Description:
This protein is α/β, with parallel strands linked by helices. 30% of the residues lie in helices and 26% in strands. It has twelve helices and 22 strands. Helix 1 (23-34) packs parallel to helix 9, helix 1 (23-34) packs parallel to helix 12 (391-406) and helix 5 (127-135) packs across helix 12 (391-406). It is globular, with a radius of gyration of 21 Å. It starts with a strand and ends in a 17-residue tail after the last helix.
Amino acid sequence: xxxxxxxxxxxxxRRALVIxxxxxxxxxxxxxxxxxxxxxLVDRDGxxxxxxxxxxxxxxxxxxxxxxxxxxLGKVPAMLFDPDSALKIRWSHFPRALPWFIRFARAGRxxxxxxxxxxxxxxxxxxxxxxxxxxxxxxAGDLVRREGKLYVYESEASFAGGQYALDxxxxxxxxxxxxxGDEAREIEPALGPAVKxxxxxxxxxxxxxxxxxTQTLAELFHKKGGTILRQTVKGLEFGADGPPKVxxxxxTHDPDLIVVAAGVWSKQLVAQLxxxxxxxxxxxxHAMLPDAxxxxxxxxxxxxxxxxxxxxxxxLRITGIADFEGxxxxxxxxxxxxVLRHARALIPGLKSNGMTRWMGNRPSTPDxxxxxxxxxxxxxxxxxxxxxxxxxxxxxxxxxxIGELAAGREPGIDIHxxxxxxx
Length: 423
């Protein structure tokens, strides 16, 4: 069923269809609209209702450290056998995921980590500028806050172990303030005595409701004449010539331009174009506490427990877990109880009355970098997926980049590191 925008008629131009109405797809649709395209946004769910809805809300201008870091692979065996660990894997899925882990190991080499950090830091630099440009046309500027982010450590050893990542940020111009445990509690008084050290990044920000952020931007897209279709994309159809068509459970669409922004499900779609992407679902969980008994001031990330505690407008959210079980495995909501248990070690006395649990499929590449750019051999198709844990942070930047590519202009960021051919 279609929803057609009620605003002024769309500008004359080519027809674009964006597959995926998460934050990346929605921002891409808006920027394409600015370039004069007549844009249709297609998703089986409503805007933002997938992985974009349940994340930690981080808008981390300094979130360019990859998951694969020097020495990280050596920690994997112990983590897999620790019931409270942030890393989980379904052993029957491991043979299928093995190519991902091999590439993950390669991505953790020091020179590669430096190159990844360079590429992501350059892209994230325009994070706030791009969101402000979109939100300026709404009355929802309160959704984005820049109050910094606090990393906490429960021992001097873990603080020392975190210095590589902190220095990686410092070398790229990010201010990082090293703190004692008491200084960390001055910034976030809710923290208990378990915290021994901290590191504060003032430039970081967050949204107080990632779902409302995506929905607000989708409403703007709709108001400006965009079309939103709630349909399930089944695949792509190829004729003798011309661009591919998009087949859904309700219709066959023949746009001039296709943008694939379907998160982890993009892998199957782009395979039909002959593009092989190394990407896994890295399932994440959250526990949402509507009446936690505390209100935190800043986003807190535990380097020991691999969780993030974020104050949302509707309660306290605790996110965590890197769960490699595949797309076909049912959610294991006991993982959300695990992240709550970890949070209580940092903030004693958290109340869980009315708690809700959530799981989302993060589209994770082994080098922690998204796939952005033209589809090899298909100039009428653009890729915008694989953002892993920084999809929210790069959502508007990716959208702007898609608009620039579609208009035939040089992108504001270097997309070479994000090219699909790297796999």
